[in-house]
Amino acid sequence: MSDTTAPPRETVGSVRDAYAGRLFPGAQIPTFRNIDRLFPSRPIRRGDTVRPLVVGTGRAFKDMTFESAGQRYDLFDWVSRNRIAGVLVMKDGQRRFEHYEFGNTANTRWMSMSMAKSISTTLVGVAIQQGLIASVDDALVQYIPSLAGGAYEDVTVRHLMLMASGVQWNEDSTDESSERRQVLELQIAQRPGAILDYMSGLPKLAPSGTRWNYSTGETHLVGELLKAATGQWPADFLSEHLWSRLGMESDASWWLESPDGLEIAGSGIAATLRDYGRFGQFICDGGVIDGRPVLPPGWVAEAAGPTDIHGETVPYGYMWWSVAGGDGRYDDGAFSARGIFGQRIFINPARNVVIVVWSARSKPLGDEPICDNDFCNAACEWLA
Questions:
Q1: 35-383 CATH pick, 1.10.260.40, 3.40.710.10, 3.40.50.1260, 3.30.420.10
Q2: Where are the domains of the chain?
Q3: What percent of the chain has pLDDT over 70?
Q4: Rounded CA gap, 337 and 341, in Å?
Q5: Exposed e or buried b for every residue in 111-130, given b needs 16+ CB within 10 A?
Q6: Cis, bond preceding 315 (omega within 30 deg of 0)
C-alpha cells in the first residue's frame, strides 16, 4: 500500500517578527516561501500555455569571479555569504544559470517584498496604454476623490510613482513608531479602507515633485489608483494583461488589506523564480508581448530612472531603482526591482540580461556582505 500522507505543513513566523528581522533562519525561510499564509491573498492566474525558458550555452557560470569593495569573489562566495535562496540568470531570454538553496525548488513561490512595487507601477503603464488612465500628469484626486483637501491634493500620478509627493513618511520597518510599521499594523488588522484613511491624514512636508522620499504607503495609493481607473482588482488586471500572456508556469498570489479587499500594492506577491524572470524579460524587451506593445512608447526608459527631482538626480524611476545612477558602473541603463532582505530583478536592456535573486538575509536592509550590483554587473560582462 502506498503512503499518501501529505508532508507536514511548514511552520511560519509572525509577520511582525519577519519585518523586524527577528526570525532565526529555520523560521525565516519557511515564512518567506509561505507568505500567502500570513494574510488573505488573491490569485494571479496564469494562462493555458507555458513558454519554456530554453537553456542557453556559453562559458560555465560557476567559473565566474568578480571584484567587490576591493576583494575578489566567486559565485560560491556570493551565494553563501549573501544567503542566496535562489538565483536565475538569463541572457537573450535563455537560462544561463539557475540555482536553489534552503530546500527551494522551481515550484517554490517566494516573497517579492518591494519588487511588487515595480510590478504595480507597470500596471499603471498598461492602464495608460489602454486609455484607462489619461496621463501620468493627471491629478491623483481625479481618480481617488477622497484624497481631496489633504496632503495628496497637489500630487500627480507621475509624482506618486516617483515617490515625490512631499508627504511625511518613515520607511524603517524595524522602528515600531514609523509610518511603515503603522501601515503594517493596519494590514494586520484587516480593516477595509483603513490604509487609505491613514494615508489621507499624513502631514505635508514639501510641494509635490520637489522632494524624494521612499514610501511604501505611496504604492498602496497606486493600488487604489489601479482599482479606480480599471474597475478591476490589481491581481485580476495583472493576470488578464500580463501573467496569462507571458507564458507563466504557475499562478502567483497577492496579499490583501482585508478579506476580499484591495491588494497590498507595495508588497505581498509570491511567485516562482522563473516567472519573476519572465516578467523581467518582458520589461527588458520594452513591454512588448508577441510583437504588440503593452506599455506606452518610452515607458520602460522613463520608469527605469534616474530622475531629476527639483535639481537632484535620484537613482529611481517609477518604483524601479537605477543601477547606473546608483553606482556609476555602467552606461547601459541597467535598473532593478528590489525588496528588503535581498530580493531583486536586475535588468540590463543593452545586454539583454535579466537576473532574479531571492535572499534570506538577517535584517531588512544593510546586511549585504557582497554587493549584489557588483555580482550582477560582473555577470553581464561574463555573459557577453
A1: 3.40.710.10
A2: 35-383
A3: 96
A4: 13
A5: bbbbbbbbbbbbbbbbbbbe
A6: no
